[in-house]
User: Fold this.
Amino acid sequence: MDTLHALQAPELLLRPQLTLIDETPQANMAVVVRDGRFTDVGPAEAVSARHPNLVATDLPGRLLMPGFIDTHNHLTQAYGKALAFGEPSEIFKRIWVPLEQHLTQEDLQLSAQLAALEALRGGFTTVCDAGTRSSAGLQAIDDAVSTAGIRCVLAQICHDLGQTPEQVRATEAQAGQHLSRYASHSTIHPSLAVAIPEAASDSMLHWVAHQCREVGVAFQVHVNEHMASVERSLVARGRRPLEVLHHADALGPELLAAHMTLVTPSELALLREHGAAVSYNPVASSWKGNAVAPALQMHTMGIRLGLGTDGTRSDGFRLIDAAETAQRLTLGMAVGDFSVGAGWTWLAMASAGGADAAHLGHITGRIAPGLAADCLLVDIDVPELTPSWDLGWELVRLAHSRQIEAVMVQGRLRLWQGWPLDWDARALMARVRERAQAAVSAAPIQRIHPTSAQARATGRTMTG
Assistant:
């Protein structure tokens, strides 16, 4: 039986050349997948002996590794993509809010499904969506990720500034319904969100954080991302965004703080003291940010960390490369640290660390008995990894998404050689092309810079 058909069996006994267990490549290991979970992991001979009824699928030249976890994404922004390239910070005001608010439910679903497909192709088996600004967005994302087959932490946004008491009560009721609806879902996990602390009152921040704390889910907030937002917070409330959360008693282990690029020593101490998690978004920093989060320092301090794309590009191997590179450029070079995490740190942050930050550590993020079989089969018989001396480092700096042969979520083969098996990705792409032009043209998007081609034609570059 060929590998493709073997991976679609209801029970699997896989014997890859290497298995990445807790960031360590191990040879002569085997795993059993049953009912969507890893039920046995160990030395190949012992595992095979414990399961004589299963025919082993040998996978020479392949690495079995945990799927990547994207701890910060915006699935309904996929129509925009390069519209934000070269733009000044805080593009949500000029691009994302106008775009999302002018998408139909079909557009929202198409966008989210396209984003989910991109994530799977990049090796992500889980994405954390930070919340859509469209009233029809949650159902659209549900439909999209269910079709694509990716695991999703799905946030309901809870803002109250400018609302009447009746509207606030309605927001709270919707949040409660959202938490209840997905409480026992197998691949969609509920979360609540506030886009930025200034979008909610102290009482709402407190209420949302404690709702999340009680049921053990993530409270997603963009925190200390751009200088403008920090300054607005200081003017409006006399506190920086993270200090606003702390003052409102909304800073705890439930918090999944996206970005945290502009962070003071006292704020680092607050994050550690209260057990909060941070989504480190290195590509977002390089494309549109004011700074790079001190992720290596956070890691050393014991602050919980995952990696996020922020919807920039969904390529897991390029993300971990960017994570390490950003720390090397902003920290390592200045102090002569050539290791900056020794490779394994970024692999851990992209898998088990991300799962913990998303409150999914008991479900996914590692290849271990009892956890969901969310994993990648990676071709390591390639020129880039020949010869191989230190696979941990090589996966961070040399590997690429083209090596991902198979993507499994909850034990089910979702992608084979980059494409889904049970739905038509080409048809999705064709429909997106039909819809996106009209949707983007109708939205009151304000771009500051010309396109790359326009800039080339005029011989000008623009700064901002």
Q: What stands out?
A: Residues 75 and 273 are 32 Å apart (CA to CA). The two ends are 57 Å apart (CA to CA). The chain has a mean pLDDT of 94.
